[in-house]
Amino acid sequence: MPFDEQLEYLTELKRRAALGGGQDRIDAQHERGKLTARERIALLVDPGSFEEIDALAVQWSENEADSERYYGDAVVTGWGRIDGRLLYVFAQDFTLFGGSLSEVMGEKISKLMDLAMKTGAPVVGLNDSGGARIQEGVGALAGYGNIFLRNVRASGVIPQISVIMGPCAGGAVYSPAITDFIFMVEGTSQMYITGPDVIQSVTGEKTTFEELGGARSHAAKSGVAHFSAPTEQECVDQVRRLISFIPSNNMEDPPYVDTGDDTNRRIDDILNIVPAEENLPYDVRDVIERVVDNGGFIEVHEAFAQNIVCALGRIGGYTVGVVANQPMYLGGVLDIDSSRKAARFVRFCDSFNIAVVTLVDVPGYLPGVAQEYGGVINHGAKLLYAYAEATVPKVTVITRKGFGGAYDAMGSKHLGADVNYAWPGAAIAVMGGDQAVNIINRRDIQNAPDPTVARVQLVADYKRRYEHPYIAAAKGYIDDVIDPRDTRAKIAHALEMLRSKAETLPAKKHGNIPL
Prior knowledge:
Blueprint: H1 3-19, H2 23-31, H3 37-44, E1 51-53, E2 75-82, E3 85-92, H4 103-119, E4 123-127, H5 138-154, E5 160-164, E6 167-169, H6 174-178, E7 181-185, E8 190-192, H7 196-203, H8 209-213, H9 215-222, E9 227-229, H10 232-245, H11 270-273, H12 284-291, E10 297-300, E11 308-315, E12 318-325, H13 336-351, E13 355-362, H14 369-373, H15 376-389, E14 394-403, H16 404-409, E15 419-422, E16 427-429, H17 433-440, H18 442-447, H19 451-465, H20 470-474, E17 480-481, H21 487-497
Parallel strand pairs: 3-4, 4-5, 5-7, 6-8, 7-9, 12-13, 13-14, 14-15, 14-16, 15-17
Antiparallel strand pairs: 1-2, 2-3, 10-11, 11-12
């Protein structure tokens, strides 16, 4: 075949691959309010940076005419750049077989992940699939298994991000579940193991696809989704912003950005934000906003377990992970969901060399039968484990209170924090005075001429003697008691001092975290 004809043939194959399931199915995708796989990739990566691979991959059969083959199968794979930084991306193509996973599709994604591991760059998966391709049987299941294996091997080595932009059902949900972050689009994406019809036939429960596995359900109730957005464009913008904070792999530091924000900047209005009374609520995001550079941060799991805030921001141009109790919700107590949320976030930061800053204002663990039966002991231990295991720089500030085991769990010196500060009014004790006197002075109160007056006096005496940071400071558990207005500067100086920190854990295959 002459060279010109060869090029013409190649061009025709790639044109067909680019059309996926054809123009009619592309139009149907748009009518659903969804973009195609290639349109999504174009939004994600820098213009002109995408290089496709395996566009001509196909399940080959000698008995099938060339005109009947769907080149590229139901996924587009390749690499591109975000702000000039390399990443790998695959996008499932719903216009072809509903984006279902075939043996060829599994091989394409596995090859892409192998490349990402070799070169040390993130993988972003744009998911829009009906699940395994039933007619391929065990070949499709093998494809999922091969992807799962690579997800696990890549965990903690390169960042893995899953973006759900359509259905993601059955076994297909487990690959995103292993990755570091899951993004969902409101109204068009769903994740579930079994659909509403199966649930109703087995349990009698009636539900809808959106109630069962929509973005809002997973962002607020199950905690499966870390981020949700109203449109695909906004979702992709969130992905790009997240990537700007994190390194390409576990051997690199996060990207430095000259923010122009003076690390010595005082927070002059901090005393107007945080009430002195320990039971009055405030939004800890207002504190985070003033501590990080230029008030910029991206919150992870914003709608889930809102009694704790986890966010990525910068201090002195360097990325930090912030974990902060949120007094606006449940008084900032720790419970099952907040412990899981914060533990996973701390472990992500530790995996990718991101320093952890902890802002403590915690009254303890949430009491209740439901919490105990739900396993708060095991789930609470996850947070202890995450902090104790982390070897990145860890700086903690107790703003108002740290009571009981929750004091230990929230980045205490005892779990390996490097620098711990407290504000002058911070209360650090086994429990608050109101609860403590009910236990240790119960008989004194009962026998007093006026129990109410006696109780008030005993609480005041307890707070004066025990609820202050100076006992902890005397023992070295607090490195300094600081002016709240200097909080940003103190954290920044500590992080700068810790930049060369090197710490290793005892030799072992891996620990046995209470999962």
